[in-house]
């Protein structure tokens, strides 16, 4: 079973982590590639009254180069959904090659 590492998510509460897990489960079902590690890095930057959430996803494959995706958004859940969608798009592109 592939490993999933969430880095920078330590400050989030249990309900936020549950929502994040639901998004990941939904998106990972669509991932049709063998991989050994999915690493998701979260960096939060304070801008005025809100936070910008910068997410970087690194998918380490058993064979070939890793696949990367990065996005920033004010809403953490939208950012996670968008970055996973971008990762799926990159995977589809790499498979076609």
Q: Quick summary of this structure?
A:
The protein is an alpha+beta fold.
Provide structural commentary.
This protein has 97 residues and is of the alpha+beta class. It has a single domain (3-96), classed as 2-Layer Sandwich (Double Stranded RNA Binding Domain). The protein contains two helices and four strands. The chain has a four-stranded mixed sheet with strand order 1-2-3-4, with helices on one face. Helix 1 packs parallel to helix 2.
Topology (SSEs and partners):
Elements: E1 3-7, H1 14-28, E2 35-47, E3 50-61, E4 67-73, H2 76-96
Helix pairs in contact: 1-2
Structural class: alpha+beta
Portion of residues in beta strands equals 35-45%
Strand order in the largest sheet: 1-2-3-4
What would you report as the Rg, rounded to the nearest angstrom?
14 Å
Number of domain units? 1
Q: In the CATH hierarchy, what is the superfamily?
A: Ribosome hibernation promotion factor-like
Gross morphology: globular
How far apart are the first and last residues' alpha carbons, in Å? 26 Å
The number of helical segments is 2
The first-level CATH class name = Alpha Beta
**Main sheet makeup:** 4 strands, mixed
CATH architecture type:
2-Layer Sandwich
Write the H/E string, N to C. EHEEEH
Average residue-wise pLDDT? 91
Spans where pLDDT lies below 50 across 5 or more residues = none
CATH topology: Double Stranded RNA Binding Domain
Tally of strands: 4
Helix content: 25-40%
């Amino acid at each position: 079973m592939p490993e999933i590492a969430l880095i920078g998510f330590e400050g989030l509460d249990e309900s936020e982590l549950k929502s994040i897990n639901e998004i990941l489960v939904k998106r990972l079902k669509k991932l049709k590639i063998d991989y050994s590690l999915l690493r998701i890095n979260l960096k939060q930057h304070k801008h005025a009254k809100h936070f910008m959430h910068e997410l970087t996803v690194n998918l380490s494959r058993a064979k070939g180069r890793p696949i990367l995706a990065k996005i920033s958004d004010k809403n953490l859940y939208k950012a996670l959904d968008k970055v996973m969608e971008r990762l799926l798009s990159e995977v589809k592109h790499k498979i076609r090659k």
